[in-house]
């Protein structure tokens, strides 16, 4: 059995990362995966919710290199034409935006080939605004993730960090983080979608897109959105394919005039789950309205409960990334 088959058979042993209302689609996906009993089955490691992603801009790696994306860290807004002069922001479809994003990625990405013993370093900037008070907090998250998953990784989320131990035998994580598994994911968008479907048995269908049910499309969206959000650096061709695949999912939609963390106005892609009434997905991938370059991500999170509950709006982007030889080694 290859690693792609194993991905379909993993079961979710972790609760959802956020409140139930905002992530019901994830809960359902985990529940579906738990229904199949086909030993041996790997246990799931709870994934870290990482919010920022960016285009895969890379360089050939022979040792330790740095590839900067918006690396000046100067958060001055870039001048954009008014929305009224940009008809594409008003009328463009989600699929057109995501196909444009895929084309932009293919035109700008470069190949990178990290060694198994190296680490992928990412620096992400997250701005949180508390909804009630308007207080803004800026977090800088720096991560060093083991390329093949065999070494301890340093993981940060909204300013807090910890060591993540390597996966044990029969453990798995979705989306996959190790480079070897990522390289095996299909680069054809239709094949990528089919590879993400959870097979319940040898006679399960899902060999064609028109056989996918509404519930399965919801699960496919969760997988693709998770891949794009949680894996900022991908092998060549995978991010463009994921963008195109996401554009095929029923329920994705374009929302114009959305601001990113640097104040730039773009067009966002979000998702209305047709199987869950009153519980939209909530996350926004924000793209430049003309070039379709990926600008950043917007989401919400909550802390506490009852009268003490606080709700935050998060805007985030990938500032830079690099390949390093050691965890916590500065590029």
Short description:
This protein is an alpha+beta fold. 24% of the residues lie in helices and 26% in strands.
Beta-strand portion reads 25-35%
Number of helices: 8
Largest sheet: 8 strands, antiparallel
**What oligomeric state do the depicted chains represent?**
single chain
Tell me the number of strands: 12
Distance between the termini: 37 Å
Q: Indicate the low-confidence ranges by residue numbers.
A: 6-88
Helix content: 10-25%
Anisotropy-based shape: globular
Order of helices and strands: HHEEHHEEEEEHHHHEEEEE
Rg value? 19 Å
Structural class: alpha+beta
What is the typical, i.e. mean, pLDDT? 77
Account of the 3D structure:
By secondary structure, this protein is an alpha+beta fold. The chain contains eight helices and twelve strands. The strands form three sheets. Strands 2, 3, 4, 8, 9, 10, 11 and 12 form an eight-stranded antiparallel β-sheet that branches. Strand 11 and strand 12 form a beta hairpin. Helix 4 packs antiparallel against helix 8, helix 6 packs across helix 8 and helix 7 packs antiparallel against helix 8. The longest helix has 17 residues. It is globular, with a radius of gyration of 19 Å.
């Amino acid at each position: 059995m290859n690693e792609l088959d194993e991905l379909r058979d993993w079961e979710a042993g972790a609760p959802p990362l956020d409140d139930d209302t905002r992530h019901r689609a994830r809960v359902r996906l985990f529940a579906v995966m738990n229904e199949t009993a086909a030993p041996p089955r790997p246990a799931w490691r709870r994934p870290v919710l990482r919010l920022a992603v960016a285009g895969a801009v890379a360089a050939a790696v022979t040792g330790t290199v740095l590839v900067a994306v918006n690396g000046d860290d100067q958060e001055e807004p870039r001048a954009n034409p008014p929305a009224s002069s940009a008809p594409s922001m008003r009328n463009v479809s989600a699929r057109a935006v995501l196909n444009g994003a895929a084309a932009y990625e293919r035109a700008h990405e470069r190949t990178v080939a990290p060694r198994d013993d190296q680490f992928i370093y990412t620096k992400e900037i997250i701005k949180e605004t508390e909804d009630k008070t308007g207080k803004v907090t800026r977090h800088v998250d720096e991560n060093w993730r083991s390329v093949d998953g065999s070494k301890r990784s340093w993981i940060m989320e909204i300013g807090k960090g910890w060591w993540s131990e390597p996966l044990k035998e029969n453990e798995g994580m979705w989306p996959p983080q190790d480079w070897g598994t990522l390289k095996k994911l299909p680069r054809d968008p239709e094949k990528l979608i089919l590879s993400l479907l959870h097979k319940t048995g040898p006679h399960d269908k899902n060999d064609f897109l028109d056989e996918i049910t509404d519930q399965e499309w919801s699960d496919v969206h969760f997988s693709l959105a998770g891949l794009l959000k949680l894996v900022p650096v991908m092998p060549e061709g995978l991010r463009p394919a994921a963008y195109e695949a996401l554009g095929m999912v029923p329920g994705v939609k374009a929302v114009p005039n959305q601001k990113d963390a640097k104040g730039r106005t773009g067009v966002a892609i979000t998702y209305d789950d047709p199987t869950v009434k009153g519980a939209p997905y909530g996350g926004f991938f924000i793209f430049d309205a003309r070039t379709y370059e990926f600008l950043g991500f917007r989401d919400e999170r909550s802390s506490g409960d009852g009268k003490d509950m606080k709700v935050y709006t998060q805007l985030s982007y990938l500032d830079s990334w690099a390949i390093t030889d050691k965890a916590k080694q500065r590029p």
